[in-house]
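Human: Here is a favour to ask of a fellow structure person. Comparing notes only helps if you start from a blank page. I am asking you to supply a protein in sequence and C-alpha cell form. Write it directly below this note and I will take it from there.

Assistant:
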Amino acid sequence: MDAIILAAGYATRLYPLTKDRPKPLLNVAGKPIIEHIISKIEGINGINKIYIVTNDKFDSTFNKWLENFDAKSPIEVINDGTKSNEDRLGALGDVHFAIGSKNIDDELIVVAGDNLFELSLNDVSNFFIKRKSNVIVLHDVKDFELAKHYGIVEIDNDNLVTHFEEKPQNPKSTLASTGIYLFPKKTIELIKKYIEQGNNPDKTGSFIEWLHKRETVHSFVTDKKWYDIGTLEQLEKADKHYKK
C-alpha cells in the first residue's frame, strides 16, 4: 500500500500563520502536524512509500523539513506546480496528479494533511483488507449545527455509504468525513475516469459521492479524538490536548 498526504492547500483562513508556512508544518505539541500523521501511517503494516503532495509555493519548505526528519518509511515530496489558491488542483486533483506523475498502481491510503486523529490506521487497514472495498473514516460530531461545517455522510445498517454532502445546510446525519480514505487498486482507474469526465476535483468527498453509486464504499466510524485544523481555535485546542 502507498500513502498520499494532501498538503497543497494555501490555508488562507489561518493567515498570517500560514502566509509563509504550510498548515501541515504548523506545530502541535512541539512537532509539525504532518509528523503526527506520518507516525500514524507508519503504524500500518505494509506501507511502501509516503507521497506528500504540495504546491510550488511550499515545495522547498517541505523539502527542507524532510532533510531533517528521520522517517521509517521512504517519503517523497511532489510539487503539483500551482502557485496560488486560485489555480490549485483541488484535493482529488492532487491525488490524480500524484498517481499520474509517480505511476502509482497499488492499494492507496489518502490522508488530509491538516487533520489530527488518535485512531489506529492499522486498525483501519485491517478493516479495509477484510472488506476488500473502498473505505472512508468517519467521526460522529453529534451536533447537527456543527455538522454543517463538514463533509457529512449517511450510511445504512451495513455501514455502507449511501450519501455524501459537503457542508450541507440541512445535515441528514452527524457523521463527518475525517479526510482519511482507503482505495483498492481497481479504484485508481476510477479516479482517472472521474477526472477525465470533468467532475469536481476540489473535494475528495465529491468523488466519494460519485464512487458509492458505482462501487461499494464501507465506512469505519471512530469515536477517538479528531481535530480538523481549519481555524486558529482548532489549532489551539489540538495543541492543548496533545501536550497532555
About this structure: The helical segments are 33-41, 59-67, 91-102, 121-131, 144-147, 187-196, 204-211, 232-243. The chain has a mean pLDDT of 94. The longest strand covers residues 175-183.
